[in-house]
Amino acid sequence: MSAPRKKAAIIGGGVIGGGWAARFLLNGWDVAVFDPDPEAERKISEVISNARRALPALYDRAMPDEGSLSFHQHLAEAVSDADWVQESVPERLDLKHKVLGSLCDLAPDAAVIGSSTSGFKPSELNEKGARAVVAHPFNPVYLLPLVELVGEAEHTEKAASILRQIGMYPLTLRKEIDAHIADRLLEAVWRESLWLVKDGIATTEEIDDAIRMAFGIRWGQMGLFETYRIAGGEAGMKHFMAQFGPCLAWPWTKLMDVPEFTDELVDLIAGQSDAQSGHMSIRELERLRDDNIVGMVRSLKRTGSGAGGVVKAHEAALASGESKDGLPVTARRQVPTSWTDYNGHMNETHYLEAASQATDNLMAMVGADEKYVASGKSYFTVETHIRYLEEVHAGDQLTITSQVLAGEGKRLHLFHRLWRKDGTLAATVEKMLLHTDLTTRRACTPEDLVAKLVAQMVADHAGKHADGAARYVGQPRDTA
Ligand SMILES: NC(=O)C1=CN([C@@H]2O[C@H](COP(=O)(O)OP(=O)(O)OC[C@H]3O[C@@H](n4cnc5c(N)ncnc54)[C@H](O)[C@@H]3O)[C@@H](O)[C@H]2O)C=CC1
Ligand SMILES: C[N+](C)(C)CC(=O)CC(=O)[O-]
């Protein structure tokens, strides 16, 4: 029997509440929303449909089945039986006090009560007796993993463990401070940028170029200190500080000086921003942003850096050990839009990509895992035959089973079946691999444990007829 679904109550479903709703929902939680805005349901549904095309595209494994989404007129109904309650109402302390007070009365005692506040400290949020932790996320909440946690250890530890389960990266603050860590950094850049526009030094677009053409990319993969360490050359951080420390005292920045938000300044910035990207709707901009984030985070997954490392670890935790028709399920994933082509279906290359993930997972199952490869032994593919049997579309969930047809000596003969969720066999991918010594680049027999596990799989799968195996290209479908 599967475990009962967890429930998240989202209180305030604007930009951030909508993102939280999508993050929980797409990780298999039921989500109940309370927001007095009559437009909340439409707005959240639009955010969730953007999230559906972006978040699963980060993963090479299918995510859990979505939970259910409901909207409620009464706070008590929304929070009933909730395991996590997330407050994301506008950033006003009096409003936060009122809402958090009610949540503490109505939510189950065991529920985590998180506040998305960007600036307030737990001591301020809880000064009227509430028990909230700050759980400050980043927009888009469904894609970016960071959540700054601030509060009592007993609450933050529980919150951190839940956040990891939904693929997020909790960063627990050592001390409470106004605006936590990240927004203090962002605020410095934001304030400085406003001055640069106000003083006519740069336009909004030129400032965005300065960030996206250089240090924004650097920050996204290593952060500030690690990239500056490299900037110090072989002498490292000490040299960097000696060289660039003195200029900190020069009047480069405006520091605490905040430009006054006069109508003139607001019009100047809003006008430049409209000229820069007013030709796109916010939802279109969100999709562009999401596609770019997905591409970047997927690259970071290869090295395990930053946000890519978080997705990699979460993906490993999604491994299920399932089987289907007596064969191991070696991959399960949702087809991202980026896998489809001008014919409106999954492009041929990605059948091989999906099967290749299944091969890697099967190799790990027989002991030829990352550690084995690092020790200098692996398998090389020497032949592949793909049969494209049915179309696959964006959003389809593929389940791949792998049959080991033969595995004596150096050879590993595999037969992958790619199943759609509706039970249709979409493709078969037959592969021959040779066990190889990575130092000599020549075929060799595997280590004993790998040979034994391969032999066991061959025996376990022997009774299954691999319909379509050993066919030649162009052979009529109805011939065996
Ligand atoms: N927008 C951003 O980039 C980020 C915002 N935050 C924080 O998230 C919180 C929410 O900000 P946004 O989502 O940007 O604001 P928003 O204005 O987009 O959404 C606020 C929502 O709360 C609803 N609301 C108002 N009173 C309510 C009540 N009594 N009960 C339930 N819902 C109520 C509104 O109808 C609205 O849908 C703030 O504390 C903010 O500091 C955190 C990270 C980033
Ligand atoms: C502008 N903001 C202070 C509300 C931004 C955040 O809190 C985090 C983010 O997503 O940039």
UniProtKB/TrEMBL annotation:
Occurrences of domain 3-hydroxyacyl-CoA dehydrogenase NAD binding (ranges): 7-170
UniProt keywords, alphabetically: Cytoplasm, NAD, Oxidoreductase
HAMAP family, per database record: L_carnitine_dehydrog
Catalytic activity: carnitine + NAD(+) = 3-dehydrocarnitine + NADH + H(+)
Record GO biological process: carnitine metabolic process; fatty acid metabolic process
Domain 3-hydroxyacyl-CoA dehydrogenase C-terminal: 181-246
UniProt similarity note: Belongs to the 3-hydroxyacyl-CoA dehydrogenase family. L-carnitine dehydrogenase subfamily.
Class of this enzyme: oxidoreductase
Species in which this protein is naturally found: Donghicola tyrosinivorans
A Gene Ontology term for the protein's cellular component: cytoplasm
Residues involved in NAD(+) binding: 12-17
Lineage: Bacteria, Pseudomonadati, Pseudomonadota, Alphaproteobacteria, Rhodobacterales
Biological role: Catalyzes the NAD(+)-dependent oxidation of L-carnitine to 3-dehydrocarnitine.
Record-given protein name: L-carnitine dehydrogenase
